[in-house]
Amino acid sequence: IAAVAATRGQEKSSSFFVDFSGFTWRVRWKASDRGGTSNPYTPENVYTDNAGALHLQIVKRDQSWTCSEVNLTRSLGYGTYSFTVEDISGLEPPVVFGMFTWDYSTDRENHREFDINISRWGDPNNRNAEFVVQPPFVPVNISRFVAPPGKLKHTVEWRPRKITMITSRVSGGAGDSVVSRHVFTSEVPTPGSET
Question: Does the pTM of the predicted model rise above 0.70?
Answer without folding.
Answer: yes
